[in-house]
Amino acid sequence: MTEHRARKRFGQNFLCDTGIIDRIIRAIGPQPGQALVEIGPGQGALTRHLADSGVDLTLVELDRDLIPILQGQFAGNPKVTLIQADALKTDFSAFYPDSRLRVVGNLPYNISTPLIFHLLAQHERVRDMHFMLQKEVVDRLAAAPNSKAYGRLSVMTQYYCQVESLFEVPPEAFSPRPKVTSAVVKLTPFEQLPHPARDAGLLQRLVRDAFNQRRKTLRNALKQLATPEQIEAAGVDPGARPETLTLRDYVQLANTLPPAEPAPAK
Question: What is the band of 260 on the pLDDT scale with cuts at 50, 70, 90?
């Protein structure tokens, strides 16, 4: 294999622990005929096992220098498609239009949150997602109200998905070693949303505004969106702080507000 040095600007830490690799593959459980997309395959540590399972596999890799390494490994496999692209700008709904996607990735910290939001926007096309992330991010995804980790990422991910924190991965499982512990999480989009919002865009804006000023009361944090009377009408205390509200509370509040006006054309 061609020598490739991990690049800091891509947040690259390559998984090299075979025991952890096997554990992730068992958690994913890939089956022949399934449509799977791997984000950031790197040097192919997980990819080899995914390709051997018989899935239809698309690899999305940003680093041009890794493309020939991956081509050398998988060019002979007709079920593997390699794309050099930025996952944040990729339309995942264009892949395998007749199948719901399974998405896998060892995601660098600097893109993990925006990429999860990008995929949530395409949740109807996704069957499930297995990601390796910093443990701090997984804690935020799975967080419950009244905890420090609970925030916008928690509420919006739990709106669309069931969140399962599977297991932790120590720094020594990677090369180079990161300074933090990682964890593997499974996100499964709901077939039917448990708490559907009338206007998902308004819900996102409401949650964003609330947690942008999480130390303030809702009365102050949501000044631009809701009056204290409107907050009360949803059965929510205007004097409460954002981290005390459940997902159901946020949806209920969004559903009592008038629809958001469309943004003016630029």
Answer: low
Strands (E), 92-160: 101-106, 126-134
Q: How far apart are alpha carbons 125 and 92 in whole angstroms?
A: 8
- Count of helices and strands (H, E) across the chain: 10, 9
What tokens does 1 get?
A: 């294999």
What are φ and ψ of residue 11, in 5° steps? 60, 35
pTM above 0.85, yes or no: yes
Among 3.40.50.150, 3.40.50.10330, 2.60.120.620, 3.40.50.2000, name the CATH number for the domain at 8-189.
3.40.50.150
The domain limits of the chain are 8-189, 200-256
Structure tokens at 179: 């300074």
Instruction: Please tell me the distance from the alpha carbon of residue 52 to that of residue 129, in angstroms, as a whole number.
Output: 19
Instruction: Give the architecture-level CATH label for domain 200-256.
Output: Orthogonal Bundle (1.10)
How does pLDDT run across 27-68, given as a tens digit for each residue?
999 999 999 999 999 889 899 999 999 999 999 999 898 999
At residue 114, the 3 state secondary structure works out as: helix
Angle at which helix 135-142 crosses helix 109-120, to 10 degrees, equals: 30
CA distance 202 to 194: 17
d(CA 132, CA 105): 6
